[in-house]
Amino acid sequence: MRDPRYDILFEPMKIGPVTAKNRFYQVPHCNGGGYRDPSAAAEMRRMKSEGGWGVIFTEQTEM
């Protein structure tokens, strides 16, 4: 049983035209593996997508 003080985290949230299923946000990660092995970056995205996050920021952006 979860603490009712945190119920709001499990409620949907509208962000512009999109509605996230909850208020959990997965921050971007950079492991550097995508340069040598693109399948490593794909695997990280796959694992993140299974986690139940409301919003996922997949990776960093190189400039």
Short description:
The chain is 25% helix and 16% strand. The chain has 63 residues and is of the alpha+beta class. It has one domain.
Features of this protein?
alpha+beta; 2 helices; 25% helix; two-stranded antiparallel sheet; 16% strand; two-stranded parallel sheet; 63 residues
**Care to count the β-strands?**
4
Q: What overall form do the CA principal axes indicate?
A: elongated
Number of folding domains? 1
Report the mean per-residue pLDDT as an integer.
Answer: 82
Biggest sheet strand line-up: 1-2
**Strand portion, in percent?**
15-25%
Quick one: biggest sheet? 2 strands, antiparallel
Structural class by sheet pairing and helices: alpha+beta
Which stretches are low in confidence, meaning pLDDT under 50 for 5 or more residues running? none
Please count the helical segments: 2
Instruction: Report how far apart the termini are.
Output: 45 Å
Instruction: State the share of residues found in helices, binned by percent.
Output: 25-40%
Order of helices and strands: EEEHHE
Q: What is the radius of gyration? A: 15 Å
Oligomer type: single chain
